[in-house]
Amino acid sequence: MKVLIIGLGSIAKKHVLALRRINPLVKIYALRHKIKAEEDNIHHIYSYEEIESLKPDFIIVSNPTNVHYKTLNEISRLEIPLFIEKPLFNSIGEKELNLVESLDKSNSTYIACNLRFHKGLLKMKDLLKDKRVEEVNIYCGSYLPNWRPNKDFRKIYSANKEEGGGVHIDLIHELDYLYWFFGEPLKVKKTFTNLSSLNISAYDYANYLWLYKEFNANIILNYYRKNSKRTFEVLTTEGTYLLDLIENKIWFDEENVYSEKQDLLETYEDQMRYFIKNALGKKNTFNTVKEGYKILNLCF
Description:
Blueprint: E1 2-6, H1 10-22, E2 27-31, E3 42-45, H2 49-54, E4 58-61, H3 68-75, E5 82-85, H4 94-106, E6 109-112, H5 119-127, E7 133-143, H6 167-170, H7 172-182, E8 187-193, E9 205-211, E10 216-222, E11 224-236, E12 240-244, E13 249-252, E14 255-259, H8 264-278, H9 289-299
Parallel strand pairs: 1-2, 1-4, 2-3, 4-5, 5-6, 7-10
Antiparallel strand pairs: 7-11, 8-9, 9-10, 11-12, 12-13, 13-14
Helix pairs in contact: 1-8, 7-9
């Protein structure tokens, strides 16, 4: 298997680890802007023109969100399966929609949202089958300076609005799994601010209210919570289910009903296995560019 990566950052390296766990013989290439020493047995190419002769089995697009449109527009003509790191774009409009429609026709695509492979979420999906939902509350708060301790957090793309950063789009995972569980809401209300002491240009707080036919869902996202919290609470007519995504534990009305250890890298590995099995065989209908664009619309 031959795989090309465009954007060899921290997330891409998780995909590399997942690939090597699945297939130790995989050949990995990276598109670089300037000549660098090869690292960790990753081979380099230096132009889009080289991709055609390389003929990779698929391409991982994991460069900064604000250049996704340019990158996808450049490689779409090659009709190679695409594994695209979330979010799809940093803006929405006619040109982005046209590209999505073109990619949907010509390429097998998948938007990487590894939380769809989180065992706790999969268990919640099972527990909520046939339950009458009354209310949903989602919370995801963490401390941006701790994300990459060896870097000035104000210089990473997450902190910079002009580079496509912002908690609303960075933590789109929460919107993605809400959509995955319950589908498209009838109406969306939202509030974005950057009032915290982080003093960054990107939004560091987002609050969404998604209105469904029979219930409302509230989502709070922030960059400034020092003790990380990531929870998914669903009130039903039978009682309340609460999933702690960090601990991977579920409570039903104060009783612990599920607990399992899961290395986060497992979600990347399971996701990559799914992609290889389905997208390479052009059978993927799960989180394609079309679905990713719909969720991006809800995000903005």
